[in-house]
Amino acid sequence: MSSIGDVLPQRKLLSNVDPALLHSWHPVARSTDVGENPHRVTLMGEAWVLYRHEGEIEAFVDQCPHRLAPLSLGRCRESGLECAYHGWRFDHSGQCIEIPALPPEARRPERARLSAAAGITERFGMVYLAPRTPLSPPPEHESVVNSRFQVGELPIIATRASAGFLCDNFIDLAHFPFLHASTFASEDAVTVGTAEISYDDHGFCAIYEHEFANREDPGVQSGLRPLIQRRKLTYQYHAPFTLFLTIDFLTSGGTNIIGFFVQPVNEEECVIFSTLWRDDLGGDPQAMKSAIEFERAIIEEDLWLQRQMPSLVLPLDPTIEVHTRADAMTLALRKVLRAHLGRFDQWNRHTALSSSHSAMSAQAQTRLRERDRSQPTREKAR
Prior knowledge:
24% of the residues lie in helices and 29% in strands.
């Protein structure tokens, strides 16, 4: 697979429903929300039905081929999925195995099968789906499987937003003093310093230290530590819409990992999943509840603005917007996304070229066969 620098930028804009995103891994549900009953999700305007069979998740386009009814209205049987409308049954590969209106010996239509997702997997308590052949691996994060962390899941948020802008906002350092003054930002820490950014094939890692107002620290209330403290932020981005932020509290101690997973539902809507992994709460459920409420308040501060963005298309061409050196991480995100979409463009061109060559080869073989058939006739005429 090509590296970031090998892929030429092809796209200037990114919408929630860009066709290239069909070849990506997307978060679509929490693992705990998918059981043995049909579960409906919508990704890029297309509905999918998910369910578990022997612990593994199956995923199909949420549409019965008979009358196009949503399969998510049906039920799961031992043998597979049953449509609620006429009772057509499909096995776990998507093949139709029973049509109640026909006798058992009747031949079932060849097209009586479901469209399966190209990929389905689970990571960090999330279900990831790839509608078409994925051109990159699913995201990874080693630290969140560490047993020392206490896990907390934020309520799922559905909102009007651009998935690209939501990810852009998550890694944007310059907006802290303005949108987050009431939660964690320090009004004195306005200038953005330099982040250390390193790339891999499908994303980047950025490390940044700064001062912030640690209103969560009990030591602040007791007078043990000052309100303004230092922390190290480590952002990890995996294209297109998965982010992790590891916060190491340098003054008070402890680590907080925030997972931020965005599902583009359609052109104007997204679903946000967010999970906390913390080792500084002593396993206290009430402390985790407070941490979840605090993080939800931060997200709502961001969404107040994101919901009102006039355009829900993220510019990838850096000349469309005005950038400064304080925007290094958001520029890195655009660079990775251009490369990510560029891989699809390369793959698409290669596929089209291969198809064209195959068609030309087939035509050449046909001409050769016709020539061979006519050759004996010409010999006989001489």
